[in-house]
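User: For a benchmark we're assembling, each entry needs the component sequences followed by a predicted structure for the full assembly. Here are entry 17's components. Please fill in the structure.
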Amino acid sequence: MDKERIVILIHCPDKKGIIAKVTSWCYENGMNVLHCQQCLLQDEETMMFFMRIEMETESRDFNRSDFEKEFGLFSVKEGFSCEIHFAGQKEKVAVLVSKTSHCLYEILSHYEEGDIPNAEISMVVANHDTLRNVADKFDIPFHYFPIIDKDKVSQERKIISLLKQEKIDLVILARYMQILTPDFIEEYRNRIINIHHGFLPAFQGANPYLQAYNRGVKIIGASAHYASEDLDQGPIIEQDTVRVNHEAGPALLREMGKDVEKRTLMRAVAAHLEHRIIVCRNKTVVFSKEG
Amino acid sequence: MDKERIVILIHCPDKKGIIAKVTSWCYENGMNVLHCQQCLLQDEETMMFFMRIEMETESRDFNRSDFEKEFGLFSVKEGFSCEIHFAGQKEKVAVLVSKTSHCLYEILSHYEEGDIPNAEISMVVANHDTLRNVADKFDIPFHYFPIIDKDKVSQERKIISLLKQEKIDLVILARYMQILTPDFIEEYRNRIINIHHGFLPAFQGANPYLQAYNRGVKIIGASAHYASEDLDQGPIIEQDTVRVNHEAGPALLREMGKDVEKRTLMRAVAAHLEHRIIVCRNKTVVFSKEG
Amino acid sequence: MDKERIVILIHCPDKKGIIAKVTSWCYENGMNVLHCQQCLLQDEETMMFFMRIEMETESRDFNRSDFEKEFGLFSVKEGFSCEIHFAGQKEKVAVLVSKTSHCLYEILSHYEEGDIPNAEISMVVANHDTLRNVADKFDIPFHYFPIIDKDKVSQERKIISLLKQEKIDLVILARYMQILTPDFIEEYRNRIINIHHGFLPAFQGANPYLQAYNRGVKIIGASAHYASEDLDQGPIIEQDTVRVNHEAGPALLREMGKDVEKRTLMRAVAAHLEHRIIVCRNKTVVFSKEG
Amino acid sequence: MDKERIVILIHCPDKKGIIAKVTSWCYENGMNVLHCQQCLLQDEETMMFFMRIEMETESRDFNRSDFEKEFGLFSVKEGFSCEIHFAGQKEKVAVLVSKTSHCLYEILSHYEEGDIPNAEISMVVANHDTLRNVADKFDIPFHYFPIIDKDKVSQERKIISLLKQEKIDLVILARYMQILTPDFIEEYRNRIINIHHGFLPAFQGANPYLQAYNRGVKIIGASAHYASEDLDQGPIIEQDTVRVNHEAGPALLREMGKDVEKRTLMRAVAAHLEHRIIVCRNKTVVFSKEG
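Assistant: Structure for entry 17:
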């Protein structure tokens, strides 16, 4: 019999004894806690409590829906919000791209190597036909949805329809050079990860490397964030930087930035897939990886 | 009435329910848990459990020795080792130096700014008279113990005697260029922090910058560790690195390294003073800082 | 007889043969080139050439003003701008502070250690009396100029008058929490180095750590730049960053930031004092340190 | 008519006027200097001079072999060693692998994106058949040379023979888990780049991540170096590090290390292909990238 591994994400206004209650429940219900992380965050007037608990059951008669029901009742009684994930359940992923391949290669090669075991990459979706051959290399279905006559709304509607049909859980914008409409965002709230090739909040909008060059910065960066209605304003998941100097013009900055972009995006995607993120208004709690 | 803040460090072989038991005990004894971190570490054959819990009591009739006794009984019953620290109790610190001032300045200026509030720096001890004026600037007693006729044993005996008399809790080797004898180490086991100006385990022993230069490395570093009998082999607390290139000769490496050394040492000292470190054989668990 | 060491900074629109001409002139005039760095930078329509050349003369009858005259004639003939520095000539420095000491300690302890040999720190100037004791520790004259009745103009006039009287070459704003007037900036164009405790161009203006916290960034930073009329818009000299996470509130960010601030400021100051910076409109060319 | 771009790498014992002579020669021969970098390095008793000069000719009747002859005569006259590269000439590259794909993907995806324009990747060579499908994806010939009956010498002889037949200029060991024989090294002296998954000189030899874990380091790294007869002792080209903590066991360290390994290797390969490296005994001068 396989052990079942469960990750639970919890949040609520801070209250005394909450850690004790949750860990005691798990103990009394025969769970073996593998990792447990908590933190407090001031959210305007309220001190909020966040917790991630990863545990294992060895019980022969473990039943997912029973567990969900029981833990759900417990959460209502104690007054906290929770999300329950069973490690065995794969997240279905769609990767949206335009013409640049480095982020797509990063995701697909990690996927092929088995580095993101709880993802199933179901499709690559593109507004250009350029990267079809990359998807083909990895035998991932490639869907080409061009924007015709500037009608982005119809194009997006087709994409959303496909994503829903395929029951996609996570959308990765791997240098997808189109701004999503609020409808798209709303449909996949906190389930769309974008990589911005600038060190947010500086250099929002178009051509951040040229902006960085013009400002003469000595460090460039990239920011992975959940997409929100306000462009480049969504909750930041991960950022990284690299030192540059006066020798680098905009083209070299762009080249140097690629490496930062792809690893920043990949780390954010892994954190999401490993259920290590809780969003709190415009911020994220990203629990660290253990193992 | 002041709230009392308590930090407890716990470790034991991993056992089911340990987090639940500890946090429940705290809850039932009226404690408010502020921070709580745990981790597991494989130590040879055994999976070890480590925990740091920081909490506050609002109880009017809280009594430190009662608390110690009660928590002690609880720890015996549940079979874990623990260390209890009351945040209000200052740690008495001695800083040992030779001739180089950058680490000493780093410590004393942070101290003066109030960045390490639970330390009381009681003395600077030196085998050269060079840095007396630095200690004087900050009104810290300076004790000069030269090594006469190569008799390090007597010199050390005098130092140890002074440290004991002053009830020193922590010894910082802030570029003290003498190897301590095993007796000294034994007396202050896991309470002597040394800064090694090399990226351990590379470049052990003397003149690590020259070694680094000769090997043509592209990154140099520093390592803060607890002193042990085997030179440069003690449990590493903190490390940091800085990028260098072929343009830097040994003298420039040494200059660039100073900055890494002092901040690495300072972080290790802060982690110790904030009771965020548990030593497990030749490794450290260093819990992160929250607040 | 002492060798004389000379640093020359050159810039002009790029032209063929310029490196050959300059290095040949030096060779023919008996100079021994120690370091030589060049670069090209696109400045709007023009490709600009920048060069730093460090050399030594062994000639017994070397004369500074003769050299300046001859090299000046050469520069006019070849059509480039230049700045000549004799390594033996110390730069007179004033450090402006308010109440926070970490940057001041960084500068003064490096100064005392001999790390910035071509600086002479002539004074600490403050709008509060708080850090007098720090200046006293290092025997640096401390001048307290409070702003009375919000009359910053008179206060600044006194400061400028003192700076001029003492023939100050470089002004360091070591967390001086006042915005300088355009007159002050104009007087010391590209000779005032400020440390901004945010990662410019993000988080301009007041309280950058709170801004960073509110935006939920995963990396904070500091920026050292020449002060300009537009607040926080001057040419950036040096930047550095440090990784943070959700566990850090605004107070911890501020504490973590101090270390980045002081080392970023110190590196910028060293680059200026070693004549490694050329300003080009709102950018800097910062030549690397060799040795 | 196309402009011809030429990179020349020069080294010799330091002598007065060398920069002037080289740049004057280029100027007088109608070359337009685009980038020019020099440095001095103490090599035992001798101060060595290193220079990289990148230039362009617009001359209609430029002839490569004439240029080589003329510059060769000049170098003999002035007493320096030189290497001349024409930017248009592609370097033929062989990538050696075993079973792990991340470094191979890094190289091939950059290649496909056009990031290393002066390389022609001619083949992937492997001692296991595992990564054939990766080479196939990119239409690169895959050659499988198993080691039969532990006879590494015959296996290597076949590889070398193929490399010579295909006129390979650069061999990349992209996690090729075999130690090369001295004959192989000798044949491709300073033309074999290896990635070591440890922060050299620490953690030489096998399983560096387990070594790092056992030592309890707080930072792990990777080192790209030219292969030499002494294992892991060759001239280091590039290194990078990443911060880890007690939460990471050997498996997670290995996973975290992959990202550092592949980007470190890629940067070293780019530096070699762009003719930015000069080897001096067991060290490298790596000139920075400009553009």
